[in-house]
Specification:
This protein is an alpha/beta fold. The chain has 14 helices and 23 strands. The relative contact order is 0.14. The N and C termini lie far apart (77 Å). It has helices spanning 38-57, 60-76, 78-89, 93-116, 152-163, 178-186, 203-212, 225-235, 260-272, 292-304, 324-339, 392-400, 415-424, 457-462; strands spanning 4-6, 9-11, 18-22, 29-34, 119-122, 129-137, 140-144, 167-171, 196-198, 218-222, 241-245, 250-254, 282-288, 343-346, 363-366, 383-389, 404-405, 407-411, 429-432, 444-445, 447-448, 454-455, 465-473. α5 (152-163) links the parallel β7 (140-144) and β8 (167-171). The chain has a seven-stranded mixed sheet, with helices on both faces. Strands 9-8-7-10-11 form a five-stranded parallel sheet, with helices on both faces. Strands 5-6-23 form a three-stranded antiparallel sheet, with no helix packed on it. It is globular, with a radius of gyration of 24 Å. Helices cover 37% and strands 22% of the residues. Bound molecules: nicotinamide-adenine-dinucleotide (NAD). Residues 144-149, 153, 171, 173-174, 202-204, 207-208, 211, 222-224, 227, 230-231, 245-248, 279, 378, 380, 406, 446, 450 line the site of nicotinamide-adenine-dinucleotide.
Amino acid sequence: MKPMYINGKFTNGHATEEIQVQNPATEEIIDSVPRGKPEDIEEAVQAAKSAFDAWRKMGSNERASLLHEVASKVHEHKEKIVHLLTLEEGKPVAENEEEVEWVINTFRYYAELGRHHRGSVLTSGEHSQFNFIIKEPYGVVGCIVPWNYPLLLLAWKVAPALAAGNTVVIKPSEMTPLTALYLAEHCFNHLPAGVLNVVTGYGHETGEPLVKHAEVPVIAFTGSLATGQKIAAIGAPMMKKLHLELGGKDATVIAEDADPEIAAKAVAYAALLNAGQVCTSTERVYVPRRGAAKFTEAIVEHVKSLRIGPGTDSATDMGPMIGDVYRAKFEKHIEDAKFNGAKILFGGGRPKHLSKGFFHEPTVLSNVDHSMVIMREETFGPAVPIMEYTTFDEAIKLTNDCMFGLGAVLISNDPKKIKQFFDDVKAGTIWINDPLTDNYAGPFGGMKYSGGARELGEVGLDEFREVKHVHWDFNMEDKPYWYPYGQ
Ligand code: NAD
């Protein structure tokens, strides 16, 4: 069993039971972690609180060096981290290598950004006055992370939170806690005790006490809408800063000018990366009626050529889904679509050559419409549902006909259509011809039910800083606007 990390020490805390961590490709148990209790959260929060004052007052150069050291250590341990990530999360090694690179660069990016500035000077009402803004840390930040990008989404919260001078308590997903604990042991161990803590456990036993804790003013959460709503119901009346990154149902629109072969490859990547378990996965595809046949033919041919297997096999293009419950939900969406008239063009079942693991074939569907669950709710699996449209206006209307607004993709080189798309589509990220590519400097987050938080970029740092305005008059003298009036 791998212990938790609280106040600079490895401990099983108050846990009396363990949580087993399963390899989704083989169904084997890889290891286990303590089933943390509310008391463990209490200890971690107190440790983070005690460490806060020294951490926030630390010189920015020293803090930046410590964050750069995290990046260097992750780089040093990259191979082992990638392997462990592949075992616990399942996606192919190439995708995990990319995830770990992102972690390294996120820490480097915020190490530098954190020392740039912590506020600004304003114009003053009078010459004798000085007005300025200080951006300061909140205190203890609770970071609640999902399983699909366990380290990337941890880094997007922890790096800016620490760079801003906060201390953190991390609650990793119960399905993928091992990589977070590995980082604690090998890459965060030089940080002062209490600055960073990792408590493992289930959402209701550790995540919820963290959200409820009176001394945790910020909750940075990535996960499902349902959990986000629970967190909001607890945190909003407590006036917490809620940083919520929730679900998505992203659309890709293929314009008439798009090359069908290129569009097919772009859509396959956007829909099937990490077996479709990306918050910004393409979950709906809109194709012009006139070019639909060529596009569907191209995508079926391309998807047919993809190799499904364990992520540890370097030849694998697509790995397993994370677990049985998630696969069952995915299969329900496919069944509902079939029942309501969708046509399966490819896939639709579990791969015959793999007897173990939570695999599912990539599944291409046509004849879908918005009455079907697969076009309305987050599917979070390897599906490519394709719907035809007549006019570009209609494609935009369909794209916006959704409760979520995380990302949207357009495949086109037509400037008029591109402008119309980024002007009229309600989503936090618009990708044109290069789906799902992030940028450290580019804010990432959603609109509507995807939550309004932003990660990355300068705004990603500001999510973890509060704004204080200082009004300073150099003259300590009676002011003409003080009492008494009328003189
Ligand atoms: P989830 O909501 O089930 O769990 C996320 C985390 O919350 C886990 O650590 C879990 O233990 C914890 N948790 C569960 N119940 C809790 C509670 N009552 N209080 C506090 N914490 C609780 O989500 P998941 O299945 O792990 O992740 C998949 C979801 O995450 C998808 O909906 C996906 O779209 C979303 N996601 C969003 C983004 C984004 O940036 N918007 C990125 C990745 C994933």
